[in-house]
Amino acid sequence: MNETLRVIAQRRSCKKFLPDSPDEAAVRAIVEAGRAAPSARGRQSRFFAVVRNKQLLDELNSAVKDVAKTLDDEYLHQQGHNADYNAFYHAPILIIVAGDGNKSMVEADCAAANQNMLIAAESLGLGACWINFTLFIFEGQHAEAFRKKLGIPEGYKVYCSVVVGSKAIARSEKKTIQGNDVHFFD
Ligand SMILES: Cc1cc2nc3c(=O)[nH]c(=O)nc-3n(C[C@H](O)[C@H](O)[C@H](O)COP(=O)(O)O)c2cc1C
Fold first, then answer.
1. Ligand 1 centroid vs 19 CA: distance in angstroms?
2. Which domain holds residue 121?
3. How far apart are CA 36 and CA 29, in angstroms?
């Protein structure tokens, strides 16, 4: 197995972070990995908001939870009301990925960028987790205010996000992969 395959195989979602931000070079490298992801027709019409401001992270977390409280889904409803729950697991960095909502396949473009960032973080020994709860913010009543605050361009939609930071707990257990059926047709 080569290094890239090893990193992909060992990556696990990190849901417990140390409070300090990783060094600047690592953060830049992760964002560059996102930017390097393929996009349909090579459009590269993505926008990355890298949030490190603690107050803004807290505001975003509250906004996620406010929307979750209004949802029918029992798990999400409970998390919205759970004072101990932080949608970003107190990670020091949240990277929000938006894409041009008028372009086809833009959701896949953003997902490709998100996954690249997860792998890049793992390759640097950092923890990361895909967070789609962030999307609730942009369906809620404060959507426009947050779009403005984050500088999300007109016509762009938020499709994914990742949290990144130093792992507070390094998970070593091997993941059981079930489902994801594969058929070979030779
Ligand atoms: C599309 C997508 C959305 C996700 N959204 C969330 C989320 O909002 N919150 C969260 O804690 N984990 C989220 N996850 C992470 C999954 O819970 C995690 O990937 C899954 O449990 C498998 O664990 P692993 O990444 O360690 O293999 C998301 C993953 C994907 C692919």
1. 21
2. 3-165
3. 10
Kindly report whether the global pTM for this prediction surpasses the value 0.85. yes
CATH number at residue 42: 3.40.109.10
Is residue 153 domain-resident?
yes
pLDDT band per the 50, 70, 90 thresholds, residue 79: very high
Which of the residue ranges 28-32, 139-143, 171-175 would you say has the lowest mean pLDDT? 171-175
What is the tally of structural domains in the chain? 1
Atom of ligand 1 nearest to the CA of 134: 8
Which atom of ligand 1 lies closest to the CA of 175? 27
Regarding the beta carbon of 107 and ligand 1, being less than 6 Å apart is answered: no
Question: Can you spell out the DSSP letters for 24-75?
Answer: HHHHHHHHHHHHTS--GGG---EEEEEE--HHHHHHHHHHHHHHHHT-S-HH
Residue 47 lies in a domain: yes
